[in-house]
C-alpha cells in the first residue's frame, strides 16, 4: 500500500512574491543537494503558464540502500501551472530514476492564505511507493520520514530566498520558519527507526548481486 503524507506551510510573503521566488529558489543554503535545473518546456495556454523542468539532485543513500541504488544522483521532473486569475501555483514532481526501488510523487498548491491575504499557504501532498518485494513497506516508511525531514530544509531554503528578494516584507514578519520545524526532533527519531527497520530487513532478505558489465 502506498504511503501518504501531507502538511501545510505558511509563508509570510504575498502570493505574487512567492511565485516570483519559486523560480529563483535555487541555489540557497539548504539546497546543496540540487545540482542543476533546466526548463524543457514552457507555454501559455488558457491564460495559464505551464512549465516543465528537469532537476538533478543527489541524496545520501543509507548503507542498507546501496545494494539497490548504484548512484545517489536522481533526475526529478517538475511540472507547474500558474493561474493568475485564481491565484494558484500548482506543482507536481516525481522522480524518474530508481522509481521501482522508491517512487515519490508530490503535489503542492500555493495560494493566498484565508487567515491573512498577505501570506501564502502551501498545501503539500506526497505519495511514496516501492515495488521491491518483501521490502516495500520498510522502504516506504524510510521514504516518508526522509521526505518530512527534507520539507523542513525546503521551507528554510525557500524562506531564505524570499527574505533576500523581499527584505522589507521579511523585516515585517521575522517568523519566517514554518511550524513544521517544531517537529524536527520527532521526525529525526522516526527517521532513525525507519532506517533501522529497513537495515534489518535488508540484511535478512537480500544477497548483494554482482555488478553487470
Automatic annotation (TrEMBL):
Q: Which residues form the PRELI/MSF1 domain?
A: 2-170
Pfam families the UniProt entry points to: PRELI
Q: Which InterPro entries match?
A: PRELI/MSF1_dom, Slowmo/Ups
GO cellular component labels: mitochondrial intermembrane space
Q: Which domain of life is it from?
A: Eukaryota
Coiled-coil residue spans: none
This chain belongs to the protein called PRELI/MSF1 domain-containing protein
Q: Organism source for this protein?
A: Rhynocoris fuscipes
